[in-house]
Amino acid sequence: MPPATNDGTERNTDSVLNDLNELIQQKKYNLISSGDITKFFDENYGVQTIPDFWEKYLITLIIISVAILFLFLL
Questions:
Q1: Could you list the residue ranges that cross the membrane (predicted)?
Q2: Judging by beta carbons within 10 Å of its beta carbon (0-12, 13-18, 19+), is residue 3 exposed, middle or buried?
Q3: How far is CA 13 from each of CA 27, 52, 66, rounded to the nearest angstrom?
């Protein structure tokens, strides 16, 4: 559960993603490239976020649901 108040020490998701992206892009200058799995991170690719499922497919799901409901009512 997140704290009720933010005292300025908590990091948000965007800042963590930016830091991780910077670490991956600069991996030849830090220790992230020394791990068995992290050495395969592509510094040109960086961090990619997964799009929100509901944001991406909400309209499509509504249209399909209405079409199915319409077919059952016929």
A1: 57-73
A2: exposed
A3: 21, 14, 35
Q: Residue 32 class from Cβ within 10 Å (0-12 exposed, 13-18 middle, 19+ buried)?
A: middle
Kindly tell me if the per-residue pLDDT of 26 is higher than 70: yes
Average pLDDT, the chain: 85
Mean pLDDT of 34-50: 84
Q: Maximum CA pair distance of the chain?
A: 65
- Which residues span the domain enclosing 40? 13-73
Q: Is 19 part of any domain?
A: yes
